[in-house]
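Here we describe the complex-level prediction in full. Unlike the single-chain runs in Section 2.1, the two entities below were treated as one system.
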Amino acid sequence: MNATIIDGRKEAALLRERLRPGIETFLREAGRAPGLAVVLVGNDPASEIYVQTKARHARSVGMTSFEYRLEYSSGEDEVLALVDRLNNDPMIDGILVQLPLPSHLSKARILQRINPQKDVDGFHPVNAGLLAVDEPGIVPCTPKGCLHLVRRVCPDVTGCDVVVIGSSTVVGRPAAQLFLNARCSVAVTHIDTHDVPAYTRNADIVVSATGVPGLVKASWIKPGAIVIDVGITRIHGADGKGRIVGDVDFDEVRKTAGAITPVPGGVGPMTVAMLLENTWACALARHGGGAANVPADSPDQ
Amino acid sequence: MNATIIDGRKEAALLRERLRPGIETFLREAGRAPGLAVVLVGNDPASEIYVQTKARHARSVGMTSFEYRLEYSSGEDEVLALVDRLNNDPMIDGILVQLPLPSHLSKARILQRINPQKDVDGFHPVNAGLLAVDEPGIVPCTPKGCLHLVRRVCPDVTGCDVVVIGSSTVVGRPAAQLFLNARCSVAVTHIDTHDVPAYTRNADIVVSATGVPGLVKASWIKPGAIVIDVGITRIHGADGKGRIVGDVDFDEVRKTAGAITPVPGGVGPMTVAMLLENTWACALARHGGGAANVPADSPDQ
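The structure predicted for the assembly as a whole is:
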């Protein structure tokens, strides 16, 4: 029996569709479209693609996308000054700084400069903290997308045993927090873990965010488990052509798992959709005068 | 072979001793002692004891303790106004609001009113977020004490398998974050977990913070594991006398574990010692003109 393939593209399209009516109303009432600002420092080709994708999808649902491209060599003061301007710009509801940043810049200082109420990536410590204490705040897009996809096949995850592989502050950790808030038991494993499969073999849900192609094997997965593959690694085949692969040995794991996200077409499109949801929530909050309290656990999201 | 008993009282005394010289110097240079403000709303007897203990130990290391007792029926505005005054008081380096608060008050709103740079309990979302993203900030006292005690018997915890029982925002979750930052693999279990011993039986380190006496049994513990008991529950014996017990079946688990903290005399004294350390760090930061590991340019301050 093969795993259910969780179609991230389809889910993302549904989410985008659901946003459009509200955004049209917003445009009429506020006299402007919700605005998303994306800042890119440098010319990393993958980052350029991500920025264009985000901008394109933002426009597709009726938002305005403001893109800012700074030279790789930009100084920190320059980047901070731009963030300050965007914080103060009434047309901008959400601000995203595309990672990775050039190494001479302090990611922490730049991300912490973003007004937490416009922090659509949810990386600001205030939002990370609100997630940690299970209070309403802005939840990072990829973890949010992961939980959404899990809920497509398992609406109630209470008591599920979850293993997150990868402890990055942008994916693994907030994913762990989000699943914990959803009443799962959660284990976080990473590069220092002695025996990752000893954890994953007992898991109902495995979320892998390591960037190591082929890491997650069939023998690592309990039959019937849900496997969420966050990996995005570009590899080159024998034909020289590049393609994107995840962390999971998809062809083998799909024979064991109950459900699995493909790469591409799984988590990736959901990340963008959640970005639009977060931006929409920020716009509503700003327009309505309240705080961008996006319920991270809403079954409809 | 019986477990090493990790003596929290002794460790706490050592820590307090190490603080005194610096505080004496501070007094000479700053012209005042570091100041800790403790706010107690209502008359919960256990809370009263905790407040007195904290104040006493603060004074014992040369700090000034400012205690504020408000009526149980105090309104939220009144408590917030007091916090505002303490935030602005130059003699006060650290502010602690004793929990639990009366149920008519919003714990979130009150804790979030504390200036993150004076948040010596580390409960403010800014500090919770800094911990979550592994950036310098103020770490909650009890988790900090737990890690300190573990390190007495195991200085390098890299790669250790840790299970935290209990997912409270004040202990279990920050403890999980702290051990994750220390490069442990960490699982968080709680009341919705289907099979806690299935987790703990494989753990090198078990931190139990549930308030359920006798929960953690010898069969739950891998031989040689380190057991940190955060439980503080008052029970009454057959003689009618009250005593404090932890979560762990101490007499049985000590035969299996490699090391164990007693209750009382384990985690409790360390929590207070860490409070003094946090307060000292805040005083140093304020006196030196820098930030107590909280970014000075965080927009939400």
